[in-house]
Every structure is written in C-alpha cells, then in structure tokens.
C-alpha cells in the first residue's frame, strides 16, 4: 500500500498544472497520468485543491475546485475513488483504483467564520493545512518574520477541525504556530509534507521539537521529495532516505511516511519546464508566497525520484540501508492509514 500524504495526479506535460495562476480546471488527468499512477502502485493521494495563493476569492474558489474534482472523479469511476474514510483507501487498494483525498494547503478561506469548516467537511475535504508560507488570520507561516503563534481565531478553527474529525495539517506553518496548534488540538495532528531542519536548516523544514511533539501525541509526519532536503537545493534520493531516517529516529517508526509534494508523471522537457518554473518563482516572490530555498534554477522535485518507479526505487534504497520490510511498509503507506483511522473514524 502506497499513500502519498501530499501529491498530485495530473500530467504536468499537458499544461500548466502547478503554476501560480492555475486552478483545478487547468489540471490534465489523462490516460498517461492515470497509467503512471497505477504503474507506480499508488493507493491514495492527498491532492491540493482550493485557494493557496493568488488573486482568487478564497472561499468561493475553493468551493469551485471541489466541484471540479467531483466532476473529474465522476468521469473516471473505474480509476478514481473519492476518499471520505480510511476504509475508502482500503477499498481503492482492493479495487485497483486510486483514492483521492481532498486537502487544502491554506485555511485563509475560512474568512472570519470557523463554521465554514463544517461546509468543507460536508463537501468531502479531509485535510486542512492551517497556513501557507505567509501569515494568515490563523497564525504565522514559515516565512512570516514575526514568528507569531496560533491566533484566537486559529484556535477556533482547530476546534472546528477537531469537531469535524478533519486532519489538522501543520506543513508550511511557523514553528510557534505549529507548536501552539499541537498543544491546542484535542486530536493528533500531522505535518504531511516537510523535511528535517536538523539536517537542512531551511524554514520549510521542521525542528526536532515540532516533529517529536507531533509524534508524541499520536500524529503523522510525511517527508517530501523537494529541494529543501539539501542546502544546495539539488536534493537526491539519498537525501530523502536521510531525512526519513532522521524523522524515524525522532518520531519513531509508527509516525513517519511520505508526502512527496509532486506528481507521479515525470517532466519530459526540462528546458521548457525551466522557463515555466522561472515565471512561477517570480510570481511567488511577487505575492510573498515563496520560501527560502526556491530559485529559478532549483527544480521543485528530486530528479532521481520521479516517474512511476519513484516509490519502488525509494523502497529499494531503504532496503539497502537495512530497513526491515515491515518498517518500509509503514513509511510507504501503513502509518498514514493508521493515522487516518484515528482521525476520520466516527466516534
């Protein structure tokens, strides 16, 4: 079972899949993307929908993208399954489909009304990240120089997420906001895509204190396949292995998984992609949404962990490092599924 705690299902070669002005209407989930996902062994993936950054009205844009994803899944019932429960992930695995978990990477769309969380939950959202890189009304993102903590409104939103049994995702949050949310939440929380700051000191990575406290409260930490895993910005598969090993040492083997922050389908034309990437990095800088470690010549993925073989390659590398088969299985998906059972199950 392979569960990607944050990733994509689109074919990035077919259009602007992840650009600063893209929406779910721009995603191309074609036969190649679906074939690659199946070939990779992917069981389920948390896909980002709704407002993250840009000039869209956050709440309305998010509702629109939920509708788009509902239509995408309805058009591919033989290949895709909307995930509402952990058992839906198991069902996707049994039926050879890919489970699609609706997740947000910003909670700015709650506006000033924590009651919107119930609306999002009713529409199928299962994971809500409190902040992106900048601050919002809930708290500080990792690039907010003020280093503020969880705000009173942020506490109200965490309470609403707990009540609705949605995952509280602390990826991208500032350290104080992260620690405040861990302490305030009455349910375990997650950091679905990050690296370890003890290995690479960049704001997008999490300190040992954050990682440890998430795990001590029964939460989940996903390690990404991103350039932030190496100070040079040119991360390799070996860096992913190193960050996974450190996270397991800090959190224990029952609380760590993968959240690649990327699609399964590989980029075909890197020269064309670099042109597009430079435009995206400039737009992110313009809007204040970028992060330290991003650059026009820094690929936002790990080049030797792309394409349909990425998960098997990682498993082989972990096996080469002496990891037991059951530990590898936990990291590749079983730990996320166990966390989903703890959070999404009805009381």
From TrEMBL:
Q: Name one GO molecular function term.
A: metallodipeptidase activity
Please name the SUPFAM superfamilies in this protein's record: Metallo-dependent hydrolases (SSF51556)
Look up the domain of life of the source.
Answer: Bacteria
* InterPro entries in the cross-refs: Metal_Hydrolase, Pept_M19
UniProt record, GO biological process:
proteolysis
Task: Note one Pfam family from the annotation.
Answer: Peptidase_M19
Q: What is this protein called?
A: Peptidase M19
In its UniProt entry, the species of origin is given as Actinomadura harenae
